[in-house]
Write a structure and sequence with these properties.
The protein has one domain. Strand 5 and strand 6 form a beta hairpin. Helix 2 packs antiparallel against helix 4, helix 4 runs antiparallel to helix 7 and helix 6 packs antiparallel against helix 8. It has a two-stranded antiparallel ribbon with strand order 1-2. A two-stranded antiparallel ribbon has the order 3-4. With about 400 residues, the chain is mostly helical.
Length: about 400
Amino acid sequence: MKQSGTDLRRPANRRMFLRNGMIAAGAAGIGAAVLPGSSSSFERNDDDKSPITKGDIAILRFLQALETVEADLWLQYSELGGTQDNEVSGPGMAGNPAYTAALTILDGDMPQYIHDNTDDEISHERFLANYLKSKGADPFDLSPFKFLPSSQADGADKTAVRLTNLTQLTVDTSFWSRYRSITNPDFDPGAPFVQAVPSLNVGQHTAIPRTNDDTAGSNPSNPPSSISTHLQAIAFTAGFHFAFIEQGGTSLYPTLAQQVSNSEVLRVLLSIGPSETMHFQTWQDKAGNALAITDTDNGFTGSTGSTVTFTVLSMAKGETNPESLNGDTLQANLIMPEPCHFLNQDLGPVAIIRPTSTRNSGAVASVMAFANDGLFIDPKTNKNTGIVQALMLLAEEADQARRSD
């Protein structure tokens, strides 16, 4: 991310955030190292003698906070491009027909998929908050950081305040080649993984229409011919951003599950995590349908001047062999994870979720990825909001949790 304020990728900067960014919001203590068991209304496993530890609660609070962030961003996508009903968007919402039509270029079912992904993330946030309360712990309150402006395009809740900014994104699309290669970042941290859309990883790009200027000249009647190149670029950016967001949860849940002590908490993580994987597989499949276009974000309200070029990945030239050690496979239709090295190269390749090594500080890495993505940029200052420091504190506690036998 070139213009988003402090770079969180350097360890020294992360330590500075943790040293200088101590905040009061949501910092209610979680009490003793071991919390009481579940209430009688919850399922019990009488064979589980392991209490819920402070580390378990730290992991749950971090995941609840991250799901709050995801629910916030997905609701914005759903308001503009999802199926409209009382279940997610609420009464009176009509969506943005031109943006919705642009998304359907990727797949005709995109509005329903966006709606359902949004519904899932809202349910994850709500369940984890309720579960924490049932164990005598406070959910983490992110409301002090909910002040970013909403889209002003038709279909958005224009008066809503947001936790996330979807208009200045720097999208890391290396997930594309990582899952299509025999290489594994856990086994080979130095493995190269090329960007599926290199220009999305440079500059700042919008994934939603910011105002009606972004949808001008587009008619939902006959996509793609009736949709402007500019709006197509916005929709395709969203398609790759969907996959970027969901691949994070895909690896985060199994990473943190290795550090859980209580079997019921483990069950929670192992039950929610696979739904994130289902999301990721769906979105990487749809993103591969992007058309070959180039667009420069100039002359529009809030434009950043960034240029993006999408290619037809189903016709990707160059290395398309999943057994390559170069990590640069771009073939579009490889939506299943290709077998890769795991634990020991002598064991042979195996199809797995990656990365999952606890050495990589899964929670901290997730926050850094979201921050570098531009999700938390305040458009007034062009810098990350204070939510980054708050999430970093939670992430440090989650990563420090250790399983007790």
